[in-house]
Amino acid sequence: xxxxxxxxxxxxxxxxxGTVEDVSCGGYVSFEGWVRDHNDGRRVRHLEYEAYQELxxxxxxxxxxxxxxxxxxxxxxxxxxxxxxxxxxxAVWVGVSSAHRGxxxxxxxxxxxxxxxxxxxxxxxxxxxxxxxxxxxxxxxAAAGEPAVATHSHEHAHDHVHRHADHAPTAHPAGLPRPDxxxxxxxxxxxxxxxxxxxxxxxxxxxxxxxxxxVLTYLTGAxxxxxxxxxxxxxxxxxxxxxxxxxxxxxxxxxxxxAAERLRAQNPExxxxxxxxxxxxxxxxxxxxxxxxxxDCSDNFTTRFVVNDAAVSLGKAAVLASIYQxxxxxxxxxxxxxxxxxxxxxxxxxxxxxxxxxAGVLGPVPGVLGSLQAVEVLKLLLGLxxxxxxxxxxxxxxxxxxxxxxxxxNSACAGTCVRVAEAERRARSAPxxxxxxxxxxxxxxxxxxxxxxxxxxxxxxxxxxxAPGPIVHLPLVRLLENPHQLDADGRYLLLCARGARSRxxxxxxxxxxxxxxxxLRGGLAARAxx
Amino acid sequence: xxxxxxxxxxxxxxxxxxxxxxxDTTTTTPAALYxxxxxxxxxxxxxxxxRVAIDGEFADWxxxxxxxxxxxxxxPVAGG
Lengths: 530, 80
Prior knowledge:
Radius of gyration of chain A: 26 Å
CATH architecture of chain B: Roll
Shape of chain B: globular
CATH class of chain B: Alpha Beta
Oligomer: heterodimer
Largest interface: A-B, 45 and 24 residues
C-alpha cells in the first residue's frame, strides 16, 4: 500500500478509511472529489482520467510525505482514479488522521491542493453535446474548483460531524470570473510578456505579518505564479491593527495557513504554498532554492540575516524591509550587489538595539513599507532596475521624507560575500543553537533551586513597575559592559519586560562561557499573564 | 569649529527628541562627533551598533568631518 496510488476500479470508502485508522488519533479528515455534471459552462456526461503514472506516483508520494512532515499528522494517503468515470463517481480521495483536528484539516487541504497543481493527471471531459476535450487538472483546479466535498471529523469516537459543500474548504463555483490583469498589462513595462514573467515567477515571503500582508496581497493580485509563505507564528489580537490579512475569527490559527486561504480566495490562479515553520539557518536555504526572489518581512534581526545570507549564497534576489515606529528601511539585493552585511557587518543580536518593552508601531507604517517591497519585487520580476539596489532607502513617515543612502559592495567580496561565508562557516562549526529560554511555569522552580534572578530592565522601567520577589536589578548595558561581575559557575535567570533583551544577554553570556544562564521566555509580561 | 547638519533615525531620534539639528563641533570625525552627541542626548547605543552616512553615502567612522556636510546616524531596525 503506497501513500499515493492510482486505481482503475471504483474506490471503496470503508476500505480507504481503514488504511488511515490509528488508535493514537483523535480526528480523521477526508476530502472526496466527485465527477460533476458541468465545467466551464458546459454540460458534462462522463469523464476519463489518464496519468503518467510513473512520474505521478512519485510526485504524489512526495506531496503526502511533505504533508506528514509539515503538519505533524500521523497518517495520510491519497488515491486517484484513472479510467472512465460516470457522474457522481468518486474521482479522488484524501484521508488524514492525527491527534488533533487542526493539523488534519490543514494536511488534507494541502494534499489535495498540491496534487491538483503538481501531479500530472489529465482529464478528458465528454460533453452532453457529443463533443469532448482534454483538460489539464491544474488548469481545471484554478478555473473551476472542486467537484464537491465531504469532510468527516470525529474528535471523539461517538461524535461524528458531517459537513458538506457549503462548508467546503475550497468553493469556487463554476463559471467564476477569471482574474483580469488588463489594468496592469496596459502599462508598457508590463504587457503580455511581463504578465507571462509574473506568471512564471516564484516568490518566497518570509513573515506573514505587518509587512507581509501588503506584499502577499499585491503579489497575489498581480498574478505571481507561485507564492511561498513561511511563518511559524499564530494570529494574536495585538496583530490586527496592522496585519490586514487577519480577523478576530483567525485568533490562534497559524498565520501562514490563514494567509494562504485569503490569498487563494483573492486569486485562485496563484499557487500559494504555506509553511508553518521558523525560517532558520537550516530550513530557509533548502526552501529558498525553489524560488526566484526572497522577501524579508520578518520582525527580528536573526531572521533578517538568515534571509540575507540565503539570498547571497544562492544568488537570489531579495527585498528587505524593516520598520521602527514611524520609519522604515528598504534594501534590494541582486546577485553582485551590496547586501545587508555591507551595511551591518556584524549581525545585530535581537534585543540589544532598542527596547523590548514595545517600541510601538502605527499600523499603516508596515503597510507603506510592505507596499514598497511589493513594488520592488514586481520591478525585479519585470526586469526593471531599482534605486534601492546598492543602497538603503530610509522612509520617515513623520516628516514624509525619504532618503537614499548609497551602500557600496564591500571591496573584499569577490565572488561571494566574505561576511556571509564567514557567518556560514561559524554556523556550521558552532554547536546546535543553544536553548536559553525557560517558561514562566518553571520560574518558581528556578527560584526554589536558588537561581539568582536578574532584572535587566533600565532604571526608568524598574521605577515604573518593580518586579516582585527577590530580584537583583542590573540593567543590560551595565551587565554587558562587564559580564565577569557574574560568577562563572553561578546559576542565573535573566528577565526583562518581554524576554528579548534577556534572551540576547543569555546568549551572549553563554558565548562568554557562562553555562548556567537562562532567560525567562516572554519576560515580566508573561509572568503577569501567568 | 565645524558646523554640520545631523539627522537621527529610530531610537536615536526618540532619545534626542528631534529628527535633525545643526551642530557646531570641534570634533574632526563622525566617531568623535557621535560620542559628543551621545553624552549630550544620553544615547544608549554604542557606536559599534550604528552606521553613519555622510552626504548620502555610508561612510567610515574615521572620515574627515568637513563644514556643511550632512551626517546621518542610523541604527538597525527589525520591526515587521
